[in-house]
Amino acid sequence: MTHAVDEGSWRALWGHLEGVGTYAEALRRLSQEEPLLQARPDYPRAPGIRTSHAGELRTTLEGIRGAIAELRGLVAAALPDGASPEGGIPEEAPAAVDRRLAALARLTDTLLNEAFEPPPPLPKHAPPYVLESPRHDLAGSKAVYLSYAVEEIVAALRNALLSRANAAAGE
What we know:
This protein has one domain: Four Helix Bundle (Hemerythrin (Met), subunit A), CATH 1.20.120. The chain has 4 helices and no strands. It has helices at 7-30, 54-78, 94-114, 139-169.
């Protein structure tokens, strides 16, 4: 089995991973801000304390969506299927990485829709500080999950790239 590494695509993928990790960090920070916080407008709080970060959130989510699409192309070029070194981790195989990236793209699209929805209505008898969402995961929780999943895929891709480079150097 050949382990030859295409130097240009390898470097392009490695360099792109840094930017993807930056988006994940920004998303985790934004998960504690509006609109992902999804605070109720009728919850008693001091005025002017919280501001909306909707523009920054939209930019970050669109950046993640674009970065995932670009990653899928770079992975196909840098890590061709069937050329994995012996003893590779199944989660780092190109087909498995592509499936994970596709799932993250769907989650990003879902989050882009849900993050800007108003909070669900409360029952008439509920006090204003109670929130029982009709769906189980709030947008902020999904954002944190997405940020960790993006960081996991970045780590898996770095491991796969290093494994391929080490295998190619050992030939």
